[in-house]
Amino acid sequence: MRVYNTISAQKEDLIPIKDKHINMYVCGVTVYDYCHVGHARSAIVFDVIRRYLSYRGYDVKFIRNFTDIDDKIINRANELGIGWDELSKKYTSEFYHDMDLLGVGRGDIEPKATEHISEMIEIIAQLIESGYAYSVDGDVFYEIEKFKDYGKLSKKDISKLEAGSRVNVDKRKRNPFDFSLWKSSKPSEPSWESPWGQGRPGWHTECSAMSKKYLGETFDIHGGGADLIFPHHENEIAQSEALSGKTLANYWIHNGFITIDKEKMSKSLGNFFTIRDILRLYDPEVLRLFLISTHYRSPIEFSEDQLRDVEISVDRYYSTMLRVEEFLTLKGHAKKEPDLSSLQKIVSSAINRFTEVMDDDFNTAQGVGIIFELIREINRFLDTKQKGSSADVLIKQAMSLIRQFSDILGIFTKTPDTWQISLMKTKVIPLKESDIAELIENRNTARAGKDYAASDKIRADLDKMGIILEDRMGKTTWKVKLNYKV
RNA sequence: GGCGGCGUACCCAAGCGGCUAAGGGAGAGGUCUGCAAAACCUUUAUGCGCCGGUUCGAAUCCGGCCGCCGCCUCCA
């Protein structure tokens, strides 16, 4: 397997520290508000990476943290007039709510900053002791110039950074880029006791403390959004490696941004959609497929047109599943031996191709492409109406491949029925399933009597309410019209 | 100013030196159908921002130019 490593800026062979074991630490979220689509992307990207590594036989230990104390949390809680811990608890559970819908699995361990204060204090004390940090009036700063490799991850030359170009520099710092390890607190703020007085830890320290505690001084993969490269991950390296003298993580993996009108989606710009904004309009699988249809390091321009296209793709998948179910329940045999060669060919190469593209830096976009090639071949074969036991076997084989790939990507978890039910909700279809069944019944009676005017009227009426009918193999099925608008 | 990335058909998107430039959407024509829908077939880049160069061979490597974006602040 090859993965792109931010620190070497190239793809490298993935060689675990311990044979067939992968320890990975991914930076989670600061729980002070609902997650937006950018958070969803990061979570999904690392969820897929984790699933794929498991699929490839690695025993993966996956850590994802929660930052549950920081300035944003305190400020937000003050605005709302509630406790900071109440706020962080609320948004932790909102995070789970969204991630569960998106099919993002839990971490094996999900450490919280506030549960590791003593570990952080320990690290800070050691940094002071070994000369990498200094305290000033209850605050502690890391002195970046003491760490000679500072900047190696983000490729920054300290002397060329534009200090204070966008933010006022704290005069007490020896270098403008020295960062806070410990912040003294005002009387009204949440605080913990420390050798430097009451205060709270700086953001970067939690990941150094928690990754060390759960994965040791050196682990395999460290991940997060590309915006964490600097300063967050750079600072983690500075803290951890200064003390251990060892490499913190062998591979640094960072996902690209979501953009809107070419600009990064972010809280500060205000150009974001929350996950639940989108899930009101689209099934979670649509969002998930949309996000993995582009390589994880490329930017994704967020657009509703694109979501609509992806929704059609998902619908195409479930339509094919339905056709397959119908085909497999059919009795009888074709007169001649079915021609399986075309489907056979793609089925026999699919696993190798899928593995090959995913082995190459987790190319989910190509993986998705392979699934849709299989779908086309299945449909093509189904169109030949060649029934037979050899055909059934091959179709089932193709289906099980699609199942395997979809499970790795975490998509297509529904049945054709539950997909339609989900669509009825998101499209707000003003009908019940029983209503539809009754109208289909009426229409079939009309059709039997060749009263096509009456049957077409029923079909047109249903269409207006967002339901499309399909007459296939002597049966009428219905589906939700995707471009239906209330 | 420093560092990094991107520009592939009407839209999205893969491709990272050598098979007909994946896949999805959209448009057009066709097959099937009572008519539809779905599905399938054909079709839409002799072409990969522009100009040079390296090479037997480049969307892929190198140089220049144009355009867009990111990081250098909290940020997934």
Topology at a glance:
Blueprint: E1 2-5, E2 10-13, E3 21-30, H1 37-55, E4 59-67, H2 71-80, H3 84-102, H4 117-129, E5 133-136, E6 139-142, E7 179-184, E8 199-201, H5 203-215, E9 219-225, H6 229-244, E10 249-255, E11 258-260, E12 263-264, H7 275-279, H8 284-292, E13 300-301, H9 304-329, H10 341-359, H11 364-383, H12 389-409, H13 416-426, H14 433-448, H15 452-464, E14 467-472, E15 475-480
Parallel strand pairs: 3-4, 3-9, 9-10, 11-13
Antiparallel strand pairs: 1-2, 5-6, 6-7, 7-8, 11-12, 14-15
Helix pairs in contact: 2-3, 4-5, 5-6, 8-9, 9-11, 10-11, 10-12, 11-12, 14-15
This protein binds one RNA strand of 76 nucleotides through strand 3, helix 1, helix 6, strand 12 and strand 13.
Describe the structure.
The protein is of the alpha/beta class. It folds into three domains: 15-279, Rossmann fold (3-Layer(aba) Sandwich), CATH 3.40.50; 309-416, Isoleucyl-tRNA Synthetase, Domain 1, CATH 1.10.730; 427-480, no CATH class. Helices cover 47% and strands 16% of the residues. It has a four-stranded parallel β-sheet with strand order 4-3-9-10, with helices on both faces. A four-stranded antiparallel β-sheet has the order 5-6-7-8. Strands 12-11-13 form a three-stranded mixed β-sheet, with helices on one face. The chain is elongated. The structure holds one RNA strand of 76 nucleotides.
